[in-house]
Write a structure and sequence with these properties.
heterodimer, A: alpha/beta, TIM Barrel, eight-stranded mixed beta sheet, two-stranded antiparallel sheet, 15 helices, 10 strands, globular, B: alpha+beta, nine-stranded antiparallel beta sheet, 9 strands, Methanogen_methyltrans (chain A), uroporphyrinogen decarboxylase activity (chain A), Uroporphyrinogen decarboxylase (chain A)
Chain lengths: 370, 152
């Protein structure tokens, strides 16, 4: 759908949402907590399109996301990304899927020798590569058509996410046991790649917000020492390099999955003045915002979460109740708070559940600290 | 200390509002006090000076000024208040000239326009002195611009 077919964005809403969005970063007083349900292909479902259409049409995807933000009254930021970034640039094959994000079907690294011979692309090569060409098409559309909803985001994932987009996850996990030094090498290369990707975005837009963290490197799949060695340490090194090369200032630590045993190490991860930490789960349960604020509240902006399973399959009352508990615990976090979902809003989540999430923030997320 | 300043760098200093005499004084103070960072594998030094509103850094070799950069965010101290053990290699490429300790790459709290947030600093673990690298100063410039726009 071309831009002319959308109704204009309400500028009063945009100004108000922009004000709410500013509060967690710069302590500027506003009425209540902002909500970020991490809307991606869910926006397509609101326009009777599917995830495949969303990801094949990055310019339209951004339009759908921006208008969904207005519809739900949430964070006014145009997102476009998916998990399986960066494989294609190195020769991986990717399959567009109708009802889920694109997935890698054939990876470039198959053997230990491939790891040794693997060369990270430089900034120019990445800029011209398929991942950033598509990503920047979305961001350029946002900058041109929705300038107040633009953020120069780079989707990285952590080193384990990049590594497993280059080599099959079963191979990487086998090497973690049989040849851990090989995975070290892979993670160093993943870190170098992350730095170059951030430099590319920073050079294009003058600033960069990196989405990194630890998804595969979580307690569901790896033990704490493995998370430290293959996730936390190489990610920290990469983030430091990014900041030391001037390619910041935004850092979004997205710790998806179970982080009961490793979340504390992330307190010392490199941070910039615009750092946000989001932790998905504490064992099988949603990570309590009270615990998040206790450990990170005096350091950076906290992103409290509601279980994406509830958003997808729960009732509005269940979503509202969990959101109420989380927002009440987090709203006055010293260095800012955002309420959202543990991960991306599921494509076909019932809109009433997203509405219930936002309603809880409006009802129970009024600021008292200002 | 007689230090050479190339025409190109001199122009950069002028463009960014730095006075050559102030930079020379900053270097002289660092040389006299020993409060400076030395590259662990070379002859390059970082000196700092300025006020609460602006911290200025001069990077120089024994005979030439190499770079000058600054940030407005004021460093308050270590994020979390203490120098705890951390789980990754935080040794920087720099060492404190005064005590010889390797400067650590740690988060430090920075404040500007009433907002306090962490940022990546270079910390002497013994002398409690804080610095930032030139690249981080570039990152902080972007952060300062955002704060100036949003806090106005």
């Amino acid at each position: 759908m071309p831009a002319k077919d959308y109704a204009p964005i309400d500028q009063n809403w945009l100004e108000e949402a922009g004000s709410l969005w500013t509060t967690p970063w710069v302590d500027k007083p506003s009425d209540r907590v902002i909500v970020d349900p991490i809307i991606l292909s869910h926006a397509a479902s609101l326009f009777r399109k599917n995830a495949g259409y969303f990801y094949q049409n990055p310019d339209e995807a951004i339009r759908m996301v921006c208008h969904a933000c207005e519809l739900y009254d949430v964070t006014p930021v145009g997102h476009y990304l998916y998990a399986d970034y960066w494989g294609q640039d190195y020769g991986a094959e990717i399959k567009v899927q109708t009802n889920s994000p694109p997935g890698i079907t054939k990876r470039p690294i198959k053997t230990a020798e491939d790891v040794d011979n693997f060369e990270v692309l430089d900034v120019d090569e990445l800029t011209k590569g398929p991942t950033l060409t598509t990503h920047y098409k979305a961001l350029d559309t946002c900058k041109e058509e929705f300038p107040h909803m633009f953020a120069p985001i780079t989707q990285l994932g952590g080193t384990m996410e990049v590594a497993t987009n280059w080599a099959a996850i079963e191979d990487v996990f086998m090497w973690m046991i049989t040849e851990p030094e090989l995975v070290d090498k892979l993670c160093v290369k993943a870190g170098d790649h992350m730095v170059n990707a951030c430099k590319a975005t920073s050079e294009r837009y003058g600033a960069n917000v990196m989405i990194t963290g630890s998804v595969i490197a979580s307690g569901d799949l790896m033990d704490t020492e493995q998370i430290k060695r293959f996730g936390f340490q190489p990610v920290s090194r990469a983030v430091r390099k990014v900041l030391n090369s001037g390619a910041g200032p935004g850092i979004y630590y997205h710790l998806c999955g179970n982080h009961t045993d490793d979340f504390e190490m992330w307190k010392n991860a490199p941070m910039s003045p615009f750092t946000i930490v989001q932790i998905g789960y504490d064992g099988q349960n949603i990570f309590p915002t009270s615990k998040l604020v206790e450990h990170f509240g005096d350091r950076c902006t906290c992103f409290g979460t509601v279980d994406t399973k509830l958003i997808d399959r729960g009732t509005p009352a269940q979503v509202y109740e969990q959101a109420k508990e989380q927002v009440t615990a987090g709203k006055d976090s010293p260095r800012g708070f955002i309420l959202g979902t543990a991960c991306e809003c599921p494509t076909n989540a019932p809109p009433v559940n997203v509405h219930a999430l936002v309603k809880a923030a409006k009802d129970h997320g009024k600021y008292e600290k200002f | 200390m007689d230090i050479k300043i190339t025409e190109e760098l001199d122009n950069t200093l002028k463009d960014n509002g730095f006075k050559k005499e102030e930079i020379q004084e900053l270097i002289a103070n660092a040389e006299a006090s020993g409060t400076k960072l030395k590259a662990r594998d070379g002859n390059v030094t970082i000196a700092k000076g300025g006020s609460d509103n602006l911290t200025v850094y001069a990077v120089y070799s024994p005979d030439e000024l190499l770079d000058v950069y600054a940030h407005k965010m004021n460093i308050l101290g270590l994020t979390g208040g203490e120098l705890n053990e951390i789980d990754y290699d935080d040794a920087s490429e720099w060492a404190c000239a005064k005590c010889g300790e390797i400067a650590l790459e740690r988060n430090v709290d920075m404040t500007y326009m009433g907002v306090t947030r962490p940022g990546p600093g270079l910390v002497c673990p013994k002398c409690d002195e804080f610095y930032v690298s030139d690249g981080v100063a570039k990152t902080l410039k972007t952060a300062e611009a955002i704060l100036e726009e949003k806090r106005a």
